[in-house]
Write a structure and sequence with these properties.
This protein is mainly β and about 200 residues long. It contains no helices and 13 strands. The strands form 4 sheets. It has a 4-stranded antiparallel beta sheet, with no helix packed on it. The chain has a 4-stranded mixed beta sheet with strand order 7-13-12-9, with no helix packed on it. A hairpin with an 8-residue loop joins strand 2 and strand 3.
Length: about 200
């Protein structure tokens, strides 16, 4: 809301019409000679007096003054959807609305960020797990923010399935000898076979 102060003369109350540079506003009554008019504009404009009529039905013949009003759009922050990634790097996917944006993290888990003002900035964190980030947008004094949770997973250790083996004739059972993963869980699968192998434990 904005307030426009009017200084009137003559016999009150007064019927006042303001113009916003595009059209006249609905007439309103000013009860006192010094009157404060409150309005909620939806776009930037310059307000001037269009007409003033006092209680004796006398219209003002001289009117002066104007009020410039700048309307700033309120941002609507959208940090993107929660996500997960393998490793310590992630590219954000915020959807900017208006004004300037900035990525924030209050747990100090960021070790590097390519451009904190970019909605698609790439961040590097210093630990695995789920981290919360905030996308804050500012347009003059209009501010909005939204958060997003990103899960950073440690990559599995290099997979080792064991040495190639040639089974003897009519040998149908073999104990696979893969390396035990230090990170993550291993799972066996069949890529190519002349039969239908069955695992007693796929993990």
């Amino acid at each position: 809301q904005v307030s426009i102060e009017l200084n009137l003369s003559g016999a009150g109350p007064w019927t006042v019409v303001l113009n916003d540079g595009t059209a006249d506003l609905p007439a309103f009554e000013a009860a006192t000679a010094t009157y404060e008019f409150t309005h909620s504009p939806v776009y930037s404009s310059t307000y001037t007096l269009a007409s003033v009529t006092d209680n004796n039905s006398c219209m003002a013949t001289a009117m002066s003054g104007s009020r410039d009003v700048v309307v700033y759009e309120v941002p609507l922050a959208d940090a993107g959807t929660d996500d997960e990634v393998c490793g310590l790097d992630y590219s954000f996917q915020a959807n900017p609305s208006t004004g300037d944006g900035q990525w924030l993290n209050f747990s100090s888990s960021i070790s590097d960020i390519s451009d904190a003002a970019s909605p698609s900035a790439t961040v590097t964190v210093n630990s695995y797990g789920t981290h919360t980030f905030w996308w804050k947008e500012s347009n003059w004094e209009c501010v909005d923010s939204a958060s997003v949770d990103i899960g950073f997973w440690e990559p599995p250790s290099p997979a080792y399935a064991g040495e190639d083996v040639q089974l003897r004739p009519y040998q149908f059972t073999y104990t696979l000898q893969a390396g035990e993963p230090e990170v993550g869980t291993g799972t066996w699968s069949v890529i190519q076979s002349q039969g239908s192998p069955v695992f007693d434990d796929y993990n």
